[in-house]
Amino acid sequence: QTQLAESGGGLVQAGGSLRLSCAASIRLFSSYFMSWFRQAPGKEREFIASITSWSGERTDYADSVNGRFTISRDNAKNTVYLQMNSLRPEDTAVYYCAAGRKYDYWGQGTQVIVSS
Predict the structure, then answer these.
(1) In a designed cystine with 6, which of 75, 77, 110, 113 is the match (CB 3.0 to 4.6 A)?
(2) 2 — phi, psi (to 5°)?
(3) How far apart are CA 35 and CA 48, in angstroms?
(4) Which one, of 57, 56, 59, lies nearest residue 74 by Cα?
(5) Dihedral pair phi/psi, residue 57, rounded to 5°
(6) Which tens digits make up the pLDDT trace of 1-42?
(7) What is the DSSP letter of 53?
(8) 39-58, pLDDT tens digit by residue?
(9) Which residues partner with 7 through β-bridges?
């Protein structure tokens, strides 16, 4: 059964950092394009970052997080990460990881709260 499990969320002060993890129970994880999304209260889910399959040669970011967040993957651990630095209150949201170019699989999300 395919499962994605996010972890690493929590409460942090503005300017702080968090690293989110997404552990995937997926056969041939390394072949999957992986992404992070977030959804703030009352807002639609939005794309944050993505990383290509295998070596993760290419990464892409939303303008709102470019230069502050970094996506990476460890295929040996079936895990994708989101390093979040210089956090702002507007980064407060539930963060989700997704697997596949068509976002075939989703995790349950992890809450991030950034206090001012």
Answers:
(1) 110
(2) -80, 130
(3) 7
(4) 56
(5) -60, -35
(6) 889 999 999 999 999 999 999 999 999 999 999 999 999 999
(7) S
(8) 999 999 999 999 999 998 99
(9) 21
Amino acid at 106: W
Single-letter residue type at 99: A
Contacts of residue 49, defined as CB under 8 A and 6 or more positions apart, other chains included, come to 35, 36, 59, 60, 61, 62, 65, 69, 70, 71, 82
Distance CA 95, CA 33 (A): 17
> What gap in Å lies between CA 60 and CA 72, rounded to an integer?
11
d(CA 93, CA 52): 24
Tokens matching residue 110: 């992890």
- Calculate ∠ Cα 81-30-91, nearest 5°: 20
